Backbone:
């Protein structure tokens, strides 16, 4: 009986390491060992109690560890799901930003094209205005040169520039200036003398616009008396 008791005590101290659950033969051997230990001395009872307490503690510890593993797995799944959502949000933001940048680039290109077109139009308009100014100045100079010989440049002046309309002209009564009389007068003849009036009849007159009784005229005209009836 002593050898059986020793064998039972050895089995209780070294249980199988492959699993915690025991087979039928192992359970019978354990029951026999417990019976033998119950019949033995007090140290055997204390050892058996310690073994049972250790098994209970290990079982509870295993359950706690398993619960912790499951909690970690759930947390890992939640973290992976959150990371996937973050990646999707980033992709959506990147696509939206790319679309917004594309729209801004297209709008900027359109505005730059419009500005370039307007600049070209302004350049053409400035060139046209400069040309008209030069043409007008040349026509006025030609008319002035022709006027020294009897207002011969009046027709060219009318064809070239037409009636000159200044931006702000004084509203006065029509005034006839006998410029041709002054130009055609010989040297040494005083203004207003009978000889001057006799030798240089007026051929031209500058008419400054004014109020004719019905309408205000802000024009300046050069009249040739030889063409008037």
Residues:
């Amino acid at each position: 009986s002593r050898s059986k008791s020793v064998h039972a005590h050895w089995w209780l101290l070294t249980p199988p390491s492959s699993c915690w659950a025991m087979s039928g033969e192992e359970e019978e051997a354990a029951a026999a060992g417990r019976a033998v230990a119950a019949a033995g001395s007090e140290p055997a009872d204390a050892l058996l109690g310690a073994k049972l307490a250790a098994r209970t503690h290990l079982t509870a510890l295993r359950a706690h560890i398993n619960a912790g593993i499951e909690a970690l797995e759930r947390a890992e799944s939640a973290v992976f799901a959150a990371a996937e959502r973050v990646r999707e949000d980033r992709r959506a933001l990147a696509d939206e930003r790319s679309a917004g940048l594309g729209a801004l680039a297209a709008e900027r290109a359109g505005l730059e094209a419009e500005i370039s077109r307007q600049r070209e139009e302004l350049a053409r308009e400035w060139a046209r205005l400069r040309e008209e100014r030069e043409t007008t100045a040349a026509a006025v100079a030609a008319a002035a040169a022709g006027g020294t010989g009897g207002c011969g440049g009046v027709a060219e002046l009318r064809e070239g520039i037409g009636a000159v309309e200044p931006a702000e002209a004084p509203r006065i009564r029509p005034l006839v200036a006998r410029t041709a009389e002054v130009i055609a007068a010989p040297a040494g003849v005083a203004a207003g003398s009978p000889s001057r009036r006799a030798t240089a009849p007026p051929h031209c007159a500058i008419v400054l616009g004014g109020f004719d009784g019905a309408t205000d005229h802000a024009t300046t005209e050069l009249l040739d008396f030889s063409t008037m009836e």
Residues 2-75 form one domain. The mean pLDDT is 70. The beta strands are 176-177, 204-208, 220-224. The longest helix spans residues 42-147.
